[in-house]
Design goal:
By secondary structure, this protein is an alpha/beta fold. It contains 13 helices and 15 strands. The longest helix is centred in the first third of the chain and has 17 residues, at 53-69. The structure holds S-adenosyl-L-homocysteine.
């Protein structure tokens, strides 16, 4: 049975699904979900750590520096959420170890996908990370958490304003019995989201609020920072940004359920407001290009080229792709949420 057939019978039996429930099932259904079954990085889409080792290396040095700012606490946990192929963690730790640091770091990974977990276990075997499953809570040890391209796969609810009333968008069945996006007849509860005036469509990721709750709980007990890198607007809330990717091409969000990656733009403005309201420190969002340059992307690139002159062109190409505003440098943003009372982190 395909996920499409399962979704159709679910909808026939219980009515249309909110877009967020559709997204969650497509990504995480244990048997058919995209992340549960297909480690598609490098095939369906490509991410910064896979483009250049400089990305993970600079983040590793950032984490080491911020650990020192926290007063070099021991024990200490370096968390990564949604670690993909484990490349970023491997590059972070190789840069940290090259400075002679990191001896006090326990590593922990929150990864929802069993197939990615296997890839990570193999790649990071020598580093002995703890695997904690899908993201829920954080422990009671001072920590630094990093996540690249994780927030964009948190399921989103979508709402549209029709004649002055907000309604939730849902996935139902059309007259032929195929999956189709429609609008719920009931009015949406107004507390589900907030909108800037003039907006007629809005997308809300409930997971952002859950994340801030988890950080607020953790930072109530221990100091630390959480750094998120992703794409999305800094100010206005996203409207309808749900997109699907398969083999590097964009496909319709309903075209290949479970076989394509589903993603939305992250509402950085809302994340920042939620964190500030929770009494946490908020730095950014800033553009990825500026952030990586501030951390020394240029110098690290020159050093790598010096050590590998035959690979100069590839190294240059990779780093440029990450920092150039015309490529990923400005579309991707970096935000850091910190325990109350800490100075601003490096790079902001
Ligand atoms: N950070 C990696 C992978 C990005 S893809 C990189 O930059 O290459 C998104 C990752 O988040 C995948 O590993 C996916 O399985 C994981 N993921 C998605 N939802 C998750 C959740 N709720 N908890 C933990 N991991 C999740």
């Amino acid at each position: 049975m395909t996920l499409r057939t399962i979704l159709k019978s679910l909808i026939e039996a219980g009515g249309p699904l909110p877009v967020s429930a559709y997204m969650n099932t497509c990504l995480h259904d244990p048997k058919h979900g995209y992340y549960s079954t297909r480690p598609g990085i490098g095939r369906d889409f490509i991410t910064a750590p896979e483009i250049s080792q400089v990305f993970g290396e600079l983040l590793g040095l950032w984490a080491l520096h911020e650990w020192q700012v926290l007063g070099s606490p021991k024990p200490f946990t370096l968390h990564e959420v949604g670690a993909g192929r484990g490349t970023m963690m491997a590059d972070m730790m190789s840069a940290i170890k090259a400075t002679g640091g990191g001896a006090a770091f326990d590593l922990a990974i929150n990864e929802a996908s069993p197939v990615f977990t296997e890839v990570q276990q193999e790649k990071l075997a020598g580093l002995n990370p703890q695997f904690n499953g899908a993201f829920q809570a954080l422990g009671d040890v001072p920590f630094i958490l990093l996540a690249n391209e994780w927030l964009d796969c948190l399921p989103a609810r979508q709402f549209v304003n029709l004649d002055g009333a907000w309604h939730e968008k849902v996935v139902g069945l059309d007259e032929q019995g195929d999956l189709a996006i429609g609008v719920a007849t009931d009015k949406a509860p107004s507390q589900a989201f907030d909108v800037a005036s003039g907006q007629t469509a809005v997308e809300v990721q409930p997971g952002l609020a859950t994340l801030v709750d988890a950080l607020q709980d953790a930072f109530g007990q221990v100091p630390g920072r959480a750094l998120f890198i992703d794409y999305g607007p800094t100010e206005r809330a996203p409207g309808d940004t749900l997109r699907a990717f398969s083999r590097g091409h964009q496909v319709g969000p309903l075209a290949m359920p479970g076989e394509s990656d589903l993603t939305v733009d992250v509402d950085f403005g809302r994340l920042a407001r939620l964190a500030a309201k929770a009494g946490l420190g908020v730095s950014g969002p800033v553009e990825q290009g500026a952030f990586l340059m501030a951390l020394g992307a240029e110098q690290r690139m020159q050093a790598l080229i010096g050590a590998n002159p035959d690979k100069a062109e590839d190294i240059h190409k990779g780093v440029s792709r990450l920092v150039d505003p015309a490529e990923l440098g400005s579309r991707f943003k970096v935000i850091c949420i910190s325990a109350p009372g800490l100075p601003p982190p490096a790079g902001f």
